[in-house]
Design a protein that fits this description.
The complex is a heterodimer of chains A (about 300) and B (about 280). Chain A is an alpha/beta fold and about 300 residues long. Chain A is built from eleven helices and 13 strands. Chain A has helices at about 45-50, 70-75, 95-105, 110-115, 135-145, 165-180, 190-195, 215-220, 230-240, 265-275, 290-299; strands at about 5-15, 20-30, 35, 60-65, 80, 150-155, 180-185, 200-205, 205-215, 225-230, 245-250, 255-260, 280-285. The radius of gyration of chain A is 24 Å and the shape is elongated. Classes of the chains: A alpha/beta (about 300), B mainly alpha (about 280).
């Protein structure tokens, strides 16, 4: 059992009559990369805001590092970026990071190293107000890494960036993750989560609808896209076969979702024996995106 | 405490506007000394302000404390903007995420209030001492260091005023509106005072007694106007048959009222921040 970094228990947050987070519980263990997924307004940022001490919870509990230290001291061991990078516009990149060092009570020697990591060392004496959004976001990451944090929390880190910026940030995140830093990444971009995260927590309207490993989430048995001239016979066969769950027609194709393992070769053979000749046979795995849309729409 | 001071100092000093205002403020405080230069020499009328007794110990403590406190508006702008900017730049949120507690945040701002008040008080003390030593008719140690309660009152008054600015900045979160509110609040106090006056009539002391609990009135009561104390003014007043009999002293209860207000403002700022979602 690895060390618990953050645990949340029955957390609730109401904004007036709106329930932004509802009875949410989850645990973050050291060494994993977590993704919090959810459509916009599903309570991701609110949840992060609560554990980061900027939003007040309505009820419930959360504790950092098994409750060994209070929240603001715990935050000194956390690196976090929330939505937009917030720095003092009139200070240079270097001075902004120096201020963060002072707040966290750490030595300023890490500044140069982190600026190099995010590729901003040449611009260290430029004012923050002169930075592009991509640079601001990279500075924010440098700032979050200053204390070599136990956990890095990123809230929509690629929001509003151009493709190049998105690529740079993702590369950085992958690099940091490979060094063994625990990461909590909130995003509505699924391929982002699929690429980087080992675990996912899916929220919808403030309610948790999934928690577990990403590969288990995607590990459905897959589905077939089929077509044949004898369509009605094919449909009848599929509906009677125990390996298939839902069978539906879409865009002139038959979509048959698998309940248990069945490979294409075997299916083709069985159908041939039944005298059904296929004009289309494709086996697909469901993407995280499909899975996510199903989860968030159906409940 | 050293860490919080360093943080605040960096935030303020690297900001061009606040650096300019701080320097301008202390420059203007020094310029009080220029009053000494005011001199009319029109034929038979010879008038040298410095020789009218305004720089006499111990009166100078009172006079300079009164005049110098007009400049506090400069620092008010700094205090309000140093709080309001944290909201508009959303850096307050980042500070908290980085591991500053809400208590530390308010405490660090309050430290700046104290630092500014101390610096300003020291400045006024030193300038008054120098001016007095140059121009005063009396330079016995006992007289020089009498009536120093005006300097204490000056300090308390500034703590109170800046705490008020801090609270308003925290409450309104926008520099311009907060400064506007400062002016409006002044009017509100006067209007309430006017209403009380109208209700209880001229003879009653009740309006003044009630008004002395209003924050601005309480602060200005700490240091009453010094002009009618001048012998020259008194002489003129006597000629026209008026007899001033004001109470100039700094009273303990006036100090207590302002200290209580300061406490309420700082504690109120903390409560506001604690309850707020950023």
């Amino acid at each position: 059992m690895s060390e618990t970094i953050l645990s949340i228990k029955n957390l609730n947050k109401n904004y007036g009559s709106l329930q932004a987070v509802s009875n949410l519980s989850f645990t973050i263990k050291k060494g994993n990369v977590y993704g919090i997924l959810g459509p916009n307004g599903s309570g991701k940022s609110t949840t992060l805001g609560i554990v980061l001490n900027v939003v007040n919870k309505s009820s419930g509990e959360f504790s950092w590092f098994n409750n060994t230290i209070n929240t603001h001291d715990a935050l000194k061991k956390v690196g976090a970026i929330i939505e937009h990078p917030n720095f003092y516009p009139y200070m240079t990149a270097y001075d902004n990071l120096k201020l963060v060092c002072r707040i966290k009570g750490i030595h300023t020697k890490a500044i140069t190293e982190k600026l190099e990591l995010v590729g901003l060392i040449d611009r260290k004496d430029s004012k923050f107000s002169a930075f592009s959004l991509g640079m601001k976001q990279r500075l924010a990451i440098a700032s979050a890494l200053l204390n070599d944090p136990e956990i890095l929390i990123l809230d929509e880190p690629t929001n509003g960036l151009d493709p190049q910026g998105i690529h740079q940030i993702r590369e950085l995140i992958t690099k940091i993750a490979s060094q063994g830093t625990t990461i909590l990444l909130a995003s509505h971009l699924l391929d982002e989560v699929e690429k980087v995260c080992s675990h996912a927590i899916i929220l919808r309207k403030g309610v948790k609808i999934y928690e577990g490993r990403v590969d288990e989430l995607i590990a459905s048995k897959g589905y077939f896209e089929l077509n044949a001239t004898k369509k009605s016979e094919l449909l009848a066969f599929l509906n009677s076969h125990q390996a298939f769950g839902t069978v539906k027609e879409e865009d002139g194709k038959i979509i048959a979702i698998l309940n248990e393992e069945l490979n294409a070769e075997e299916l083709n053979k069985t159908l041939l024996e039944q005298g059904i000749y296929l004009s289309l046979l494709v086996k697909r795995k469901e993407s995280l995106e499909n899975q996510f849309l199903q989860l968030t729409n159906n409940k | 405490m050293k860490r919080l001071l360093q943080i605040e100092f960096q935030k303020l000093w690297l900001n061009k506007l606040s650096r300019f205002l701080i320097l301008a403020y202390f420059f203007l405080l020094t310029s009080i000394a220029l009053i000494a230069v005011i001199k009319f020499d029109i034929g038979p009328i010879k008038f040298h302000l410095a020789e009218q007794g305004i720089f006499n110990f111990p009166y100078i403590w009172h006079f300079n404390a009164f005049i110098a406190s007009f400049f506090k508006l400069f620092l008010a702008i700094i205090i309000i903007s140093m709080v309001a900017n944290e909201f508009s730049n959303r850096t307050l949120k980042q500070n908290l995420i980085d591991g500053l507690s809400k208590k530390e945040f308010v405490y660090s701002k309050f430290l700046m209030v104290v630092v500014f008040s101390i610096l300003s008080t020291i400045f006024v003390f030193v300038i008054s001492l120098i001016l007095g030593l140059v121009y005063s008719d009396f330079t016995e140690i006992g007289i020089i260091f009498s009536d120093l309660e005006f300097i204490l009152a000056y300090f308390i008054k500034h703590i109170g005023f800046f705490s008020f600015c801090l609270f308003i900045g925290m409450l309104i979160k926008r520099s311009a509106f907060a400064l506007g509110f400062l002016v409006i609040w002044n009017f509100i106090e006067w209007i309430i005072y006017g209403l009380l006056f109208w209700k209880f009539g001229k003879g009653s002391t009740l309006p003044d007694n009630i008004a002395s609990f209003f924050p601005f009135r309480a602060m200005s009561n700490l240091i009453d106007e010094p002009f009618s104390r001048l012998s020259a003014v008194k002489a003129v007043a006597n000629q026209v048959g008026e007899n001033f009999n004001f109470d100039y002293a700094v009273h303990w209860y006036e100090i207590v009222i302002v200290i209580v207000w300061s406490f309420l403002f700082i504690y109120g700022s903390y409560r506001l921040l604690l309850k707020r979602d950023l």
